[in-house]
């Protein structure tokens, strides 16, 4: 089923089937859809694969300013594999788990890249990150530590 959905007849990536399947697996176990697919954290598998990883305009606001999950399909479509490898290994803004990508092997990152290329470009680029203090023109989560809402009863 997946093959039928992901590999329409005549698709040029047919020879990459192994890598593409591995990339799909890595994306699933890495929880990447939770942020990079709009609505996925709420609806999970109900979001069809063809609509996944298109980035989000729902920002994450914190001391770093505001970050937006990149449209990974556009990024892969516009980037060579070598360039993508270094973009994936850089450090950027939270809450992207950069250390998870840095811990991946080149082969794993290549498999993810090939999966993203197989999905093909879709959607629009996510908004650019905002510096701290800038007005925020999109919906956003606020990552600010809060004090406890109950009084501790344990001994101190
Ligand atoms: C908790 C939310 C979250 C999760 C989970 C997450 N990301 Fe991200 N990701 C982001 C945000 C936000 C950015 C933009 C960061 C910035 O602006 O520096 C980003 C950026 C990226 C980039 C940089 C894209 C580019 O072209 O510059 C890559 C690649 C990426 N994510 C891949 C992944 C992969 C693969 C996974 C799963 C292993 C993953 N992300 C999981 C939030 C997330």
From TrEMBL:
Protein name: Cytochrome c
Keyword field contains Iron: yes
Gene3D superfamilies recorded: Cytochrome c-like domain
Domain (Cytochrome c) ranges: 18-120
Keyword Metal-binding: yes
The entry's keywords: Heme, Iron, Metal-binding
Single annotated GO MF: heme binding
PROSITE patterns the UniProt entry points to: CYTC
